[in-house]
TrEMBL record:
Pfam (any one): TetR_N
DNA-binding region: 28-47
Source organism: Aquimarina amphilecti
GO molecular function: DNA binding
Keywords from the UniProt entry: DNA-binding, Transcription, Transcription regulation
Name recorded for this polypeptide: Transcriptional regulator, TetR family
Domain named HTH tetR-type: residues: 5-65
Length: 186
């Protein structure tokens, strides 16, 4: 019998979901295989480096998603800066299912994950800050103001996801996105 073909997007979305829910330490290979829609042997075949290789692939997939869906949008001069901001915040809202989902960067940075994935996570956060800093300059903000807003936006989004999930109140996350929008309206 021929193995079932799992498309890359389906595979990565399933692995991402498991890591978001369980973190690196908490995710077993059985759960990762089930989330990916594969048998454990097929998962090893696709990721011979094991769980670490799976985590690196998920981080790379997430980084690609952010680049294509957020960072490229921020520099798309065919749209007004206001429209780009609105669309970017909508995509962030969708990425985290209105604040109900955990960020995979947070999940993979817990426990031993930071020792394994620290450089990749730091790199992605620096890309976020760099891209949002450049975007803020279009609103007439100084480089320092724009960098502060970019950093604070990242901190606020991550923090509001934690608090929203802990309190079962996603309005905290949604309010954070509105606050970010207001920071660009100086």
């Amino acid at each position: 019998m021929r193995p079932v073909k799992v498309e890359d997007k389906q595979l990565m979305d399933g692995l991402n979901k498991v890591f978001r829910a369980k973190g690196y330490e908490g995710a077993s290979l059985n759960e990762l295989a089930e989330g990916a829609g594969l048998k454990k042997a097929s998962l090893y075949h696709r990721f011979p480096e094991g769980k670490k290789g799976i985590g690196l692939a998920v981080l790379s997939y997430s980084s690609d998603w952010l680049h294509k869906n957020l960072y490229e949008l921020l520099i798309d001069k065919k749209l007004t800066k206001e429209k780009r901001l609105e669309m970017t915040l909508t995509r962030i809202k969708d990425l985290y299912d209105d604040g109900k989902e955990t960020c995979v960067l947070r999940s993979l940075s817990m426990e031993s994950g930071m020792g394994i994935f620290g450089e990749q996570i730091k790199g992605e956060m620096n890309r976020w800050i760099r891209n949002f800093t450049e975007f803020g300059l279009e609103f007439g903000l100084s480089k320092d103001q724009s960098t502060r807003i970019a950093k604070q936006g990242l901190i606020s989004i991550q923090g509001s996801l934690v608090v929203s999930n802990a309190m079962s109140d996603n309005s905290l996350f949604l309010d954070t996105l509105e606050d970010i929008k207001l920071k660009y309206k100086v």
